[in-house]
Amino acid sequence: MKIQLKDHFTYKKLLRFTLPSIGMMIFTSIYGVIDGFFVSNFVGETAFTAVNFIMPFLMILGAVGFMFGAGGSALVSKTLGEGNREKANSLFSLFTYVPIIIGILITILGLAFLKPIASLLGAEGQMLIDCVRYGRIIAIGLVFFMLQMEFQSFMITAEKPQLNFIFTIAAGVTNIVLDALFVAIFKWGIEGAAFATIISQFVGCVLPLIYFFRKNSSLLRLGKTKMDFGALIKACTNGSSELMSNISMSLVGMLYNTQLLRYAGEYGVAAYGVLMYVNFIFISAFIGYSIGCAPIIGYHYGAKNNTELKGLLKKSTVIILISSVCMVIIAELLSSPMSQLFVGYNEELCQLTIRAFHFYSFSFLFSGFAIFGSSFFTALNNGPISAIISFMRTLVFQVAAVIILPIIFNGVDGIWFSIVVAEALAVIITVIFIFAKRKKYGY
């Protein structure tokens, strides 16, 4: 039976509806891991370091897609909950067309400032060359990336999470196959990995475009729209937390790389790259669940169904707590195998990565609830609170921790442990806001 946003959600129905989104995000992160695997094992550790060094800057450029996806879908789902489907489709079309124009402008700026930024961050010699070679190709595909990220939210709002998962698999398989072909067989090096990535992003954005432009069985369809600056501002406000989160994570990634170059050299940056690949897989489960829940929360908020909001918050808390404990155990068990997979060719680097895992894995105890909390307020169309949670979690707490803890503890160990402290503090902030706003939203 088809699950609709207006339904009452039990644990079983909630997991069934969100599971495709969880799978979608996990699969997206896995094919990113595969990308890193091919670069590390077939191009070399310098190229692998360069990819991880420049990636935060590239993610900043593409963060607008996350903003319109999360913020726009929150407004569209609320409008659907209010019973105005025609307006919801007009808004959906607006939130699709505008990012294309913005993406083209960002691409031009990214290409112009890529080399100066990489140099300013500390890349030099062959690593700087590799950063530029990889980054320029990825920047060309930014519009594809932005739309792919945006549609991952709107497909769920359209009540098509399973189709969303299929489109993601198509993009992921494209990336994996082309990585093997371009990097391992054709020996195109770091450029081959970049071309594989942007082609897969094209697949990930064009399939939803075709679906939504044609007559379909979902709640949404692309068509005519009109400029609505108020709606654009509201979508940007709603999605500001996701924009802030991605920009902050990228800025913090740059800071981590700078600190690691200082305390551990290129090996530290390479080890951090491995952690980030594994982190993406684990965090993506929480992000996928939050993305899957958001349209449900937004719909019932628009329909003023407070009882359902209470149930969604309670059930989500239980699901995230159980998942968090399981993730810590799994991360500890996988620390050695994952390190061997990526950097097993270098014993010293491998041991550094394993040690980093043992510290970093405890962050999964806390990260899920803060991620959900931010998404929860986005779905309630409260962008400012969502942005504060994301800002504190991904920027303020992490920046303070990564600067202070290496001084208190053994340098590198302090860097690995800083994420744990930052995530724990973020949970405290999230709980305070949820309790403070429970009367206003009726949950």
Topology:
Layout: H1 11-42, H2 45-81, H3 85-121, H4 125-140, H5 142-157, H6 161-185, H7 189-213, H8 229-238, H9 240-302, H10 306-343, H11 347-360, H12 364-379, H13 383-408, H14 411-436, H15 438-441
Your description of this structure?
- This protein has 443 residues and is mostly helical.
- The chain has one domain (11-441).
- The chain is 87% helix and 0% strand.
- It contains 15 helices and no strands.
- α1 (11-42) runs antiparallel to α9.
- The model has no long low-confidence stretch (mean pLDDT 86).
Précis, in short:
The radius of gyration is 21 Å and the shape is globular. The chain has 15 helices and no strands.
Given as residue ranges, the uncertain stretches (5+ residues, pLDDT < 50) are none
Counting helices, strands and paired strands, the structural category is mainly alpha
Helix percentage range: over 70%
**Main pleated sheet:** none
Computed Rg: 21 Å
